[in-house]
Amino acid sequence: MRFMTLGDAAPVLDRRPWTFAGVCVMVVSLTLLAYGSSQVPVIQLLPWYVVAYLLIGACIFFPTGRLTSLRQAAAFLLPGTLLVVLALLDFGLWAGGWLLGLPAWGLLLSRWTPANPLRVLQVLKFFSLLALGLVIFTLNVIFVVFSLGLFVLPIIPFVRLVDPAYRVRPFQTGAEVLLGIAVLVLAFAVPTPEGTWSSSWIEAGGAATAGLMIAFWARRVPRRSKRAQFNSGAVV
To answer: Which of 25, 82, 146, 176 might form a disulfide with 157, Cβ 3.0–4.6 angstroms?
Structure first.
């Protein structure tokens, strides 16, 4: 009698969040919100903020093929909701700044399971990088070099083609190539907000650099906690 081993299992396609697509959606949304905030009251931007928030969430959670738990949904939606309340109370548009780290935050939450808990140190590192991202987004008006991340966006999907696991997802590959190009085109097409010192492409570039930095860190966070192993290699 022969027992089935781990090596006998059929390979399963690894369904990962579309983090890069989420970053692209964030860059477009933040650029348009920055332009709109100089034209209309903040409350009129709220529907667009909600749409951007949900689109980023869809990029992160939907491709995994798993049902989002209640705690994951609450942890994802609650910060944005609270920051919108602060904006409506005229305490500043921090909700827009939160979008910088939203794809990475969603990525961390998508891995949050009873077997792989979300650690306090990971959360602290995330907020530290988010604070650094806000500094980059603010200073890129003066130091334009921080905006070069915008020109990297169309290149990233092609670089990722060296990964065999990425090549087997033609729909994702094509969508992210188009998104990277669309973000670059849109950043130059959006008019420069009146009364600002920087053009829209500079703001989009700062968002791209900060968002990519935080998302790259989140992708490198281990997706599974360390477990005890038998000599046979089976994980328990």
So the answer is: 176
Residues contacting 144, CB < 8 A, separation 6+: 202, 205
d(CA 107, CA 116): 13
Q: Are 181 and 154 in contact (CB under 8 A)?
A: yes
What's the token pair of residue 141? Answer: 């008006």
For residue 20, give both structure tokens: 């890069």
Q: Which residue type does 54 have?
A: L
Per-residue pLDDT at 121 = 93
Q: Which residues of 92-129 are buried (b: 16+ CB within 10 A; e: fewer)?
A: ebebbbbbbbbbbbbbbbbbbeeeeebeeebeebbeeb
User: Could you read off the pLDDT of 148-166 as tens digits, one per residue?
Assistant: 999 999 999 888 888 887 7
Is 140's pLDDT higher than 60?
yes
Residue 74: CB atoms within 10 A of its CB come to 13
Distance (Å, rounded) from C-alpha 74 to C-alpha 76?
5
Which pair of tokens denotes residue 82?
């609270």
For residue 109, pLDDT beyond 90: yes
d(CA 205, CA 127): 21
Predicted confidence (pLDDT) at residue 184 exceeds the cutoff of 90: yes
End-to-end CA distance of the chain: 23
Q: Report the distance separating Cα 40 and Cα 97, nearest Å.
A: 18
pTM of the model: 0.84
Place of tokens 């915008």: 150
Residue 67 φ/ψ, nearest 5 degrees: -70, 125
